[in-house]
Amino acid sequence: MAGRLAVVGAGLMGSGIAQVAAQAGWQVTLRDLDDAAVRRGVDGIRKSLGKFAEKGKISPDDVEATLDRITPTTDLEAAADADIVVEAVFERLELKHEVFRALDRICKADAVLATNTSAIPVTQIAAVTDRPEAVVGTHFFSPVPMMKLCELVRGYKTSDATLAAATSFAEEIGKTVVVVNRDIAGFVTTRLICALAMEAVKLVEAGVISAEDLDTACKLGFGHAMGPLATIDLTGVDVLLNATRNIYTDTADEKFFPPELLQRMAAAGDLGRKSGQGFYSY
User: Fold this and answer.
1) Average pLDDT, stretch 162-170?
2) By C-alpha distance, which of 89, 90, 157 is closest to 126?
3) Which of 25, 115, 201, 202 shows its CA 20 to 30 Å from the CA of 195?
């Protein structure tokens, strides 16, 4: 059923979504604001595919065929013929509103408009369009080529047909789907990781335990593949800080109020892996 996909945002998440879709046979348009951003996204895909080829999971021909199915662009109008559009820009509501207003004008009538948001209610994003029934949350996990989960989120007006199309797409590109029936801030997975991560940061901030030992406790005690502080570093301190703030703003639940340590790290530019320093050095 492979069709045409447009991904808006060529960062870590957007390029990952573009990669797995192209590997599954979809024709993908990958769009970002400038040539340098798009080029970084494509280079990241090429590097990721190269690692799979080195491990013998795909052939060199598969690498080239996948890259051939990806069209980089800086023109949002290129989304006009897409069957599904996935927005993967930064977690700011006003930025997402800007994208969805444009997509509402550009995209064909039966297109599914999806957002990769991890914390902002889909209903809020869909409200700026004239087709909120066509808007759905498709929350992928990082790194997208490795993580099998896609959290599908139904907005207040998301139609059954839209949810079904998003489910088919996610499953076709190799993901296991869970459905969130009500788009509360943070949905399910982000609420869970934010609650755990904020408590982890507070414990380290208070000097109760080191970052390393806390992560070891979660890995060996709970069977987690990665501890919460290493997860913050992987996701990005700024990204998780924004997600948690969004949940706190919507819920006024104190457990989601970001600890001072997290705010200071973000202000100082210690953003985790992408900056070389977070709770760990890279």
Assistant:
1) 98
2) 157
3) 115
CATH level 3 topology of 4-180: Rossmann fold (3.40.50)
What's the per-residue H, E or C state across 225-251?
Answer: CCCHHHHHHHHCHHHHHHHHHHHHHHH
CB atoms within 10 A of CB 194: 27
CA distances from 96 to 100, 127, 235, 282 (A): 6, 11, 19, 31
Q: Which two tokens stand for residue 116?
A: 């990769």
Residues of the chain with CATH 1.10.1040.10: 190-273
The tens digit of pLDDT for each residue in 67-104 reads: 999 999 999 999 999 999 999 999 889 999 999 999 99
pLDDT of residue 246: 86
Where are the CATH 3.40.50.720 domain residues in the chain? 4-180
Fold of the CATH domain 190-273: N-(1-d-carboxylethyl)-l-norvaline Dehydrogenase; domain 2 (1.10.1040)
What's the Cα-to-Cα distance from 22 to each of 111, 161, 174, rounded to whole Å? Answer: 18, 23, 12
**Tokens 């290493």 sit on residue:** 230
pTM metric for this prediction: 0.89
